[in-house]
């Protein structure tokens, strides 16, 4: 303060003031006083206060006057300048629930003596706590200027502090601003499709997935997935994957796969979970459904040796990429060979469904394919059956008898025959002959024929006639092998006859 008297002759100390040429300089703190005592009366005075940074003169009384015998009093009131501190929270997050997330801040003033409420914020020992949600701000008004401050934010799970401005400074008449930016942590979700199939066409099979986030506010493209109301549709082939990048953490998800004809979901991992900073991985394994093909051989034959006859089959799949062994049957370029005897069958398991097949049988000498079912078709979950029926070729054996004799009764004579087959298992009636253990016995008269009808081809035969010494026998075809058509064994018998000559001799004495 400057105390100026209108008498420049005043020099010296008067109580608490020292004057030089009527002027004294006084320094006071808030609440202090200075008193000049013993000044001459009738002298006028003027008191001025120098400006003080950070303060406003908000009241003055008695700054001019005249010294009297009564004490003159001058009072100056100064008020500290104040400033505002605005604390703002900016939140970057696609997660709907984060709109209600509360972040906690601590404001510390350098003046720990401040214990007061400013604009609804209570400071105790210079410290206050403020809570804000994303997009909110708080203005703290009337803080004393020239006090420094520091604002810190408590860590929040799932969020990173990605930007800070004005978190420390000094309160001034210009509003201070502290802005904190928090960003929701992000994570990735990878969806993979594994396919198990031997079928070449399945490499182009598309599988459809629904990725559902339990936050309907997610509407954007994240890497390979586009979400609408938190739901994305993803289409993948075997071996492919799709990755959603930058998803907000702490969102739960569920992945489902649409059913696909001909396939089973045989494994899945990570189909439910929660997005975190660690990559979430979901894998769905689909396996092509499989089916079985049973190949059977039915054999119709009376020949014992045919039980060891091997028939050869070729199975051709329409998928020539298949190179694999199924139930001990090796397929190469979609083709396999199977060998069966009569009465045998082969069950080929685990063939991919949806694959077409054709079964053919190699020709076998002496046999005819007399029936087949299921020789073409498509593998399905229901067992496919291909049955081939082979019938042994058959032939006929005729045994004929002719007799030459001058004796009429010989033409009605029964001659005995035995037909012996090389296959002793032949039993039963074949046309005119009945066999037991491969042997048939019968009789023939002149001009008669016996026919053995439907004998298995390839069997050897012998026809024997019971010997009759009265006849000379001529025979053809009495041995051979049964073949298709008719084989004839002919037996001709001629009576062994002698000559009779009658002569006449006459003796007489009478001359003719």
Description:
The protein has 512 residues and is mostly beta strands. The protein has 5 domains: 2-80, no CATH class; 82-184, Immunoglobulin-like (Sandwich), CATH 2.60.40; 188-288, Collagen-binding surface protein Cna, B-type domain (Immunoglobulin-like, Sandwich); 290-392, Collagen-binding surface protein Cna, B-type domain (Immunoglobulin-like); 394-495, Sandwich (Immunoglobulin-like). 0% of the residues lie in helices and 57% in strands. The protein contains no helices and 48 strands.
DSSP helix count?
0
What is the level 1 CATH name of the largest domain? Mainly Beta
- Name the strands of the widest sheet in spatial order: 2-3-4-1-5-7
Arithmetic mean of pLDDT: 95
What fraction, in percent, of the residue positions are helical? under 10%
Low-pLDDT parts are none
Strand content: over 45%
CATH topology tier name of the largest domain: Immunoglobulin-like
Structural class: mainly beta
Q: Work out the radius of gyration.
A: 63 Å
The number of strands is 48
Mass-distribution shape:
rod-shaped
Biggest pleated sheet: 6 strands, antiparallel
* CATH homologous superfamily placement of the largest domain: Collagen-binding surface protein Cna, B-type domain
How far apart, in Å, are the first and last alpha carbons? 227 Å
CATH-derived architecture of the largest domain? Sandwich
Number of domains: 5
């Amino acid at each position: 303060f400057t105390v100026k008297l209108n008498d420049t002759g005043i020099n010296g100390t008067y109580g608490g003031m020292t004057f030089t040429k009527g002027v004294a300089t006084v320094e006071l703190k808030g609440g202090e006083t200075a008193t000049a005592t013993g000044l001459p009366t009738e002298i006028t005075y003027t008191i001025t206060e120098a400006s003080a940074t950070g303060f406003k003169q908000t009241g003055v009384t008695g700054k001019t006057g005249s010294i009297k015998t009564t004490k003159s009093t001058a009072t100056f009131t100064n008020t500290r300048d104040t400033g505002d501190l605005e604390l703002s929270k900016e939140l970057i997050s696609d997660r709907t629930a984060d709109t209600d997330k509360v972040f906690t801040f601590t404001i510390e003033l350098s003046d720990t003596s401040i214990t007061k409420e400013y604009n609804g914020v209570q400071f105790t020992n210079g410290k206050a706590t403020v809570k804000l949600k994303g997009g909110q701000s708080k203005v703290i008004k009337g803080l004393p200027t020239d006090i420094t401050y520091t604002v810190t934010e408590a860590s929040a799970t799932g969020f990173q502090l990605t930007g800070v401005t004005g978190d420390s400074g000094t309160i001034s008449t210009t509003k201070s601003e502290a802005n904190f930016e928090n960003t929701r942590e992000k994570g990735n979700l990878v969806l993979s499709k594994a396919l198990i199939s031997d079928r070449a066409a399945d490499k182009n099979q598309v599988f459809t997935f629904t990725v559902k986030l339990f936050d309907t506010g997610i509407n954007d493209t994240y890497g390979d997935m586009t979400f609408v109301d938190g739901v994305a549709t993803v289409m993948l082939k075997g071996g492919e994957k799709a990755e959603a990048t930058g998803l907000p953490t702490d969102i739960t998800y569920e992945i489902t796969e649409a059913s696909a004809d001909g396939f089973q979901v045989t494994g899945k991992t990570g189909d439910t979970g929660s997005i975190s900073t660690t990559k979430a991985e979901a894998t769905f394994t689909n396996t092509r459904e499989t089916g079985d093909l049973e190949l059977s051989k039915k054999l119709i034959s009376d020949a014992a040796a045919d039980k060891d006859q091997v028939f050869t089959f070729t199975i051709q799949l329409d998928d020539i990429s298949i190179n694999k062994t199924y139930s001990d049957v090796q397929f190469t370029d979609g083709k396999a060979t199977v060998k069966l005897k009569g009465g045998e069958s082969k069950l080929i398991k685990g063939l991919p469904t949806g694959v077409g097949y054709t079964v053919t049988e190699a020709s076998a000498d002496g046999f005819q394919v007399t029936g087949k079912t299921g020789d073409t078709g498509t593998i399905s979950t229901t067992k496919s059956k291909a049955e081939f029926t082979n019938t042994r070729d058959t032939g006929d054996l005729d045994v004929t008898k002719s007799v030459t004799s001058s004796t009429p009764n010989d033409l009605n004579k029964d001659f005995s025959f035995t037909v012996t087959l090389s296959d002793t298992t032949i039993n039963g009636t074949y046309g005119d002959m009945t066999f037991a253990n491969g042997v048939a016995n019968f009789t023939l008269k002149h001009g008669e024929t016996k026919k053995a009808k439907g004998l298995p081809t390839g069997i050897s035969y012998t026809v024997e006639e019971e010997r009759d010494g009265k006849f000379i026998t001529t025979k053809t075809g009495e041995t051979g092998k049964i073949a298709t058509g008719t084989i004839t064994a002919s037996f001709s018998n001629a009576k062994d006859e002698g000559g009779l000559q009658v002569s006449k001799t006459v003796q007489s004495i009478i001359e003719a």
